[in-house]
């Protein structure tokens, strides 16, 4: 069950401040109506539903929030954000919490999810767009799950696009990635 709620926590915890400064969203505005959780398509699999992430964030329960599976299961669908009567951009908060967890090395329990994110971004950095074949190869190499899903290969491989042609602006994309790494 959700922890005791208030209209505005009024607490100025370090986690609330960190989220505010990174993504300009104030989780203190959450008053625990639960509409975000009611609409979240991933809530059934989460250890903390979105409204509890908000409440524990208000209470500065950093470890509980940052080590939760929920922030990695969030599919960034924005349903919660569009439903929130307080205009709390929960989707953005989830993204920010992943960013913080990654920076702090709190990803041991989510190695495969992180490997997927890293592989996805690497293909975008190298080709300027999503390249499914490259993503699959990088993910398999990073995780070591070489034979997982092998039975699907005959159906899947013909559908994968070939290496995409070089796009314009690839250098600028590379520089954007370098800049973002400098921020980490
Ligand atoms: S919908 Fe908004 S106000 Fe309601 S619990 Fe979720 S974050 Fe809080
Ligand atoms: S953005 Fe994430 S937390 Fe929000 S509804 Fe979608 S999956 Fe759930």
Overview of the structural elements:
This protein is mostly helical and 184 residues long. Helix content is 54%, strand content 0%. It has helices at 14-23, 35-39, 50-58, 62-66, 70-73, 79-83, 90-103, 111-127, 132-143, 153-156, 170-183. It starts with 13 loop residues before the first helix and ends with a helix. Residues 1-10 have low confidence and may be disordered. It binds iron/sulfur cluster (2 copies). The site of one iron/sulfur cluster has 15 residues, from helix 2 and helix 3.
Q: Give the overall average pLDDT.
A: 88
In whole angstroms, the N-to-C terminal distance is 34 Å
> What profile does the largest beta sheet have?
none
Radius of gyration: 19 Å
Number of strands: 0
Q: What helical percentage do the residues reach?
A: 40-55%
Low-confidence stretches: 1-10
Shape: globular
Strand content: under 5%
Write the layout of secondary structure elements.
Elements: H1 14-23, H2 35-39, H3 50-58, H4 62-66, H5 70-73, H6 79-83, H7 90-103, H8 111-127, H9 132-143, H10 153-156, H11 170-183
Helix pairs in contact: 8-9, 8-11
One iron/sulfur cluster binds at residues 39-42, 50, 74-80, 90-91, 94.
């Amino acid at each position: 069950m959700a922890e005791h709620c208030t209209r505005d926590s009024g607490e100025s915890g370090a986690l609330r401040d960190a989220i505010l400064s990174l993504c300009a969203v104030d989780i203190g505005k959450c008053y625990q109506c639960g509409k975000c959780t009611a609409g979240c398509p991933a809530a059934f699999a989460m250890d903390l539903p979105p409204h509890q992430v908000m409440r524990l964030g208000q209470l500065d329960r950093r470890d509980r929030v940052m080590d939760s599976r929920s922030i990695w299961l969030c599919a960034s669908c924005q349903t919660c954000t569009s439903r929130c009567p307080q205009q709390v951009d929960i989707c953005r908060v989830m993204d920010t919490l992943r960013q913080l967890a990654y920076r702090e090395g709190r990803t041991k329990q989510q190695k495969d999810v992180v490997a997927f994110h890293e592989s996805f971004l690497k293909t975008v950095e190298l080709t300027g767009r999503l390249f499914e074949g490259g993503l699959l190869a990088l993910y398999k190499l990073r995780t070591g799950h070489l034979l997982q899903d092998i039975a699907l290969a005959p159906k899947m491989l013909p559908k994968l696009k070939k290496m995409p042609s070089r796009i314009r602006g690839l250098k600028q994309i590379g520089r954007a990635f370098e800049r973002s790494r400098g921020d980490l």
